[in-house]
């Protein structure tokens, strides 16, 4: 699953699944633009680093201006784009009665609008420069089988699944595949921020036949396969990584 001579954008790359995916892609030869709002803004002259060094780009992906700048940076630095992994996301717990409109809007903007904007501006570059493009959108098992009090998050992740399926139909003849990964409970800062140890222990011992939660690397391994030419006839798929999660 060699990614040599390929250029990838990975969003949400500062931690969790995004970081593991960016690191794995780089180890397999890809040139990477890592994007996260948590990164420090690029300093003048830093773009003269070795072309094999990933670039960490500070961006608010809810902003058209920031997304366009990220795509321009890829074009200026590498002259092409082959792969996009949309991994940026947040979670706001609560049901529709408890959630404020502002919280719901923030989840939808961060989890769905960012995917829309990145795809909107990345796809023309992929089509122009790659005959085997791959977009991988990170959804969630909660977008397929929600649990109580995840209403906004589940809605946003379900939207990513539908958006993935729609995108996969548009440019398949031009070699662009669009797939979706729907992880179950994965050992990331996001999971631990919203679930306490008692809940996680119950999930591991009762709901996951594998008896444990997953690791970011296990999701990244699937992303690597979907990014590579080994998955050349997989398009519009929604693949779960959940240890056989019951529900």
Protein traits:
247 residues, alpha/beta, 7 helices, 42% helix
Describe this structure in words.
- With 247 residues, this protein is of the alpha/beta class.
- The protein has one domain (7-241): NAD(P)-binding Rossmann-like Domain (Rossmann fold, 3-Layer(aba) Sandwich), CATH 3.40.50.
- Helix content is 42%, strand content 14%.
- It has helices at residues 16-27, 64-78, 101-129, 151-168, 189-194, 197-207, 216-227, and strands at residues 7-11, 31-36, 55-58, 83-86, 134-138, 177-183, 238-241.
- Strands 3-2-1-4-5-6-7 form a 7-stranded parallel sheet, sandwiched between helices.
- Helix run count: 7
User: Could you report the average pLDDT, rounded to the nearest whole number?
Assistant: 93
User: What count of domains describes the coordinates?
Assistant: 1
CATH class: Alpha Beta
CATH architecture: 3-Layer(aba) Sandwich
Please state the overall shape, judged from the principal axes of the Cα atoms: globular
User: Approximately how much helix is present in the residues?
Assistant: 40-55%
SSE class: alpha/beta
Biggest β-sheet: count, sense, barrel? 7 strands, parallel
SSE order: EHEEHEHEHEHHHE
**The CATH H-level homologous superfamily:** NAD(P)-binding Rossmann-like Domain
Radius of gyration: 17 Å
The CATH topology label is Rossmann fold
Oligomer: single chain
Q: Extract low-pLDDT stretches.
A: none
């Amino acid at each position: 699953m060699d990614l040599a001579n390929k250029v990838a954008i990975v969003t949400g790359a500062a931690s969790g699944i995004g970081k593991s995916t960016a690191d794995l892609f780089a180890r397999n030869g890809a040139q990477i633009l890592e994007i996260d709002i948590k990164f420090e803004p690029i300093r003048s002259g830093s773009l003269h680093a070795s072309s094999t060094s990933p670039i960490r780009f500070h961006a608010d992906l809810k902003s058209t201006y920031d997304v366009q700048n990220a795509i321009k940076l890829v074009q200026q630095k590498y002259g092409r784009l082959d792969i996009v992994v949309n991994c940026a996301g947040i979670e706001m717990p609560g049901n529709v009665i408890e959630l404020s409109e502002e919280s719901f809007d923030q989840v939808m903007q961060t989890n769905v609008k960012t995917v829309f904007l990145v795809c909107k501006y990345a796809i023309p570059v992929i089509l122009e420069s790659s005959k085997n493009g791959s977009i991988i959108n990170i959804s969630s098992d909660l977008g397929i089988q929600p649990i109580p009090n995840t209403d906004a998050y589940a809605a946003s992740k379900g939207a990513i699944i539908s958006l993935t399926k729609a995108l996969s139909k548009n440019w398949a003849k031009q070699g662009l595949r669009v797939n979706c990964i729907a992880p179950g409970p994965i050992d990331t800062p996001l999971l631990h921020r919203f679930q306490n140890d008692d809940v996680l222990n119950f999930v591991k011992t009762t709901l996951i036949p594998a008896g444990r939660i997953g690791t970011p690397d296990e999701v990244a391994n699937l992303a690597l396969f979907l990014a590579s030419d080994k998955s050349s006839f997989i398009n519009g798929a929604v693949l779960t990584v959940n240890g056989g999660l019951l529900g």
